[in-house]
């Protein structure tokens, strides 16, 4: 089972001057402990469901660029990019830049976006849900074209690009892997079947994840896609240090469903959390 650390809280410690060194130290600890990926959110206000909106928050891709210079091995990405926040051609260039500067470690995590307060607050267009998903599909198509030898135009309903030139291209693989986040059964998982190399599901329970994966399997069959070609990942919501045995039992249940990467979220001091996770959980994780 691979491990990801999802860093969501920039309010601890409280001094803004400590944000950068704490973030960097946490990432280095995670890499040394054996984490395979490191992600941050794509938000500009803190999520109100987690903390007050006016708590500290950093722009995601700038943050990943900082982390690229302070790590050597972990995959870096957003969990997940909000489709409304960047024009698709620019997004492809941004992620390509991260990939080149990190030595080929970028991952494009992307979703339909949803946080209306920050969009209204910062002047980002708010469009109906159906249109967000249309824009998400076109963005996926544009990124795929920009990470190919086809430099020609793209004509969509919402986006029109005269040319899709992207130099340098991503390093190796041959394209940056795409992770679509979310468990929407009609649209999100259908787009996973069509375009993604990875899916990311919210780990509320193994039973819920099993149902979502059944839906994904059906979409893959309808689309002629090999279900086993898609890497399944889960963001686990259970705090690992509160009950290590229960967290490990959930991880084992997800592994039995074919999940090969789980992400966990630091609580409180991220450095202390990462140190304790490395001491108490990783040695017991198969």
Automatic annotation (TrEMBL):
InterPro entries: F420_OxRdatse_Rv1855c_pred, Luciferase-like_dom, Luciferase-like_sf, SsuD_RutA_monooxygenase. Residues 23-235 form the Luciferase-like domain. Gene3D superfamilies: Luciferase-like domain (3.20.20.30). GO terms for molecular function: alkanesulfonate monooxygenase activity. Keywords: Flavoprotein, FMN, Monooxygenase, Oxidoreductase. One of its GO terms (biological process) is alkanesulfonate catabolic process. This is LLM class F420-dependent oxidoreductase. It comes from Spirilliplanes yamanashiensis. The lineage of its organism: Bacteria, Bacillati, Actinomycetota, Actinomycetes, Micromonosporales.
